[in-house]
Write a structure and sequence with these properties.
The protein is built from 4 helices and 6 strands; from the N terminus they run H-H-E-E-H-E-E-E-E-H. It has a 6-stranded mixed sheet. The protein is globular and about 40 Å long.
Amino acid sequence: MSANTDLISQFIGSFQDKDVDKILEYFTEDAVYTNIPMDPPNRGKAEIRVILEMFMGMAEAMEFVVHHQSETADGVVMNERSDRFFVNGQWITLPVMGVFEIDNGKIKAWRDYFDLNQFTSQMAS
């Protein structure tokens, strides 16, 4: 594996600990995190912290299960995942496609593509 692929594997694995400070260490100061069906993009660590704390606050536990991961020639890492959140005594599973742009060993852009309705419909049940 390359350094970029290793970095993203470690980053994805860090979500199980629900430690926002640890997760934010993976980002550049001016990173952009975009949940594609949700606007606006989260720019900079302070905004990224808010969205991460929201997700982590709603879930008693969480895990991201990577099914496939690849890297482009220019170092962009992409993965197909199932993001799982334990909420109100049940696991909610969301299929996600993530794209990560890396700059000097840090994530400078993270985009997740998913169907928001799949998430909200499971939250309602």
